[in-house]
Design a protein that fits this description.
Elements lengths: L1 E6 L4 H13 L3 E7 L12 H4 L4 E5 L5 H8 L4 E4 L6 H6 L1 H21 L4 E5 L24 H20 L3 E6 L1 E3 L8 H10 L4 E4 L5 E6 H13 L2 H4 L3 E4 L4 E3 H11 L7 E4 L14 H7 L7 H14 L1 H5 L14 H5 L3 H13 L2
Parallel strand pairs: 1-2, 1-4, 2-3, 4-5, 5-6, 6-10, 7-9, 8-12
Antiparallel strand pairs: 9-11
Helix pairs in contact: 1-8, 3-5, 5-6, 7-10, 7-12
Length: 357
């Protein structure tokens, strides 16, 4: 069996990727490592995954050089999602972002140098570009990160590239535009709006709501990452590849659309000061992804938005147990409760993990 290490595998996009590969690649074993911070959630993976003999889990920090080196030595490929990602949090606590996003990436790269793998997929972000200077934003767009989060991801992005040039690491750098969909933490704008509306609370909107983003449905993004794992290495090694849709939608438009679809026209939109380092527009080109990966976005935004709304309506227990760090009405459980899925199934995965050390 092929063995793939996935970092950040119980986070939002990482767990979507794990679920996808467990379904699509029966000849693959997945080694998942995650620190299970407030943004990681073991219940993002169903019990069927936890109980699958092809799935192994380690609760560990990607900066733990001993653990990471041991895991990399056993796998054929690495897909690196793990990162601190929330822009607002990075403004008030830059240390975690620099340490995890840059130093953690360095630890992984050094492990790959010591124990070469077939492929290293690094998940960067469109935030490294800053506000759009051209339409659409191609991979040649200048790097103008506007927040500590974006700068940390930019540093990791360029660190990976430098290891390709200096050490011939077989890496591919993926820059997704704004992902959304089921299992996303309620601190992010779309689930924040949906869950506030469901509780008849005002929707907190930065500035006048005119800032716009290119929204990529999470399943489409995970398909692109999977294609990067199987594409011709000679064509993609060292390349930067956007995953975008070429369409942008303003935050204010999304808020109004969510209220209409939930039949909550009486819920007000509450304007809050624009965040520092705000990006005013993102709109991405996916031409290179089409050329190198055969990938293109599949899910129109309004279709994906409705699917996302329906999921949050049907899964209130899940999102009520997510930490909301900005004054939301959500119940904040203790750490043990936050990490609990099914004690028996999680323990079974941990036992398998221990047995292979």
């Amino acid at each position: 069996m092929r063995r793939i290490l996935v970092t950040g595998g119980v986070g939002f996009i990482g767990s979507g990727f794990v679920r996808r590969l467990m379904r699509a690649q029966p000849d693959t074993e997945l080694y998942v490592v995650d620190a299970v911070t407030y943004a990681g959630n073991c219940s993002n993976l169903p019990e069927a995954v936890w109980n699958d003999p092809r799935f192994f889990f380690w609760k560990a920090d990607i900066r733990d050089r001993e653990v990471i080196t041991r895991l990399v030595s056993r796998v054929d490929a690495v897909v690196h999602f793990a990162a601190e990602t929330h822009v607002d949090n990075s403004i008030y606590n830059t240390d975690d972002f620099i340490d995890t996003d840059v130093k953690g990436t360095q630890v992984l790269l050094d492990a790959v140098r010591a124990h070469p793998v077939e492929r290293f997929i690094h998940i960067s972000t469109s935030e490294v570009y800053g506000t759009a200077l051209a339409e659409p934003m191609t991979e040649e767009h200048p790097l103008n990160p506007r927040s500590p989060y974006a700068s940390a991801k930019c540093g990791a992005d360029r660190l990976v590239y430098s290891y390709v040039i200096t050490f011939d690491i077989p890496a591919v750098i993926i820059r997704p535009f704004n992902n959304y969909g089921p299992y996303q933490h309620v601190e992010k704008v779309i689930p924040c709006f949906v869950t506030h509306a469901l509780h008849d609370r005002p929707l907190p909107m930065h500035g006048d709501g005119s800032s716009s983003r290119d929204w990529v449905y999470v399943d489409d993004c995970c398909e692109g990452v999977e294609r990067a794992l199987t594409a011709d290495l000679k064509a993609v090694q060292g390349e930067v590849i956007n995953l975008g849709t070429g369409v942008d939608t303003a935050i204010g438009t999304i808020g109004a659309e969510i209220l209409q679809r939930l039949n909550k026209p009486y819920v007000p939109i509450r304007k809050v000061p624009d965040r520092r380092g705000q990006v005013f527009r993102h709109i991405g080109s996916w031409a290179k992804a089409k050329a190198l990966l055969g990938w293109q976005p599949r899910t129109p935004f309004l279709q994906g938005l409705q699917q996302t709304i329906d999921w949050y309506v049907e899964h209130e227990t899940w999102w009520q147990h997510n930490t909301h760090k900005h004054g939301g009405p959500w119940h904040i459980p203790d750490q043990a409760a936050a990490e609990k899925l099914s004690s028996s199934s999680v323990q079974a995965a941990m036992v398998r993990s221990s047995a292979t050390r």
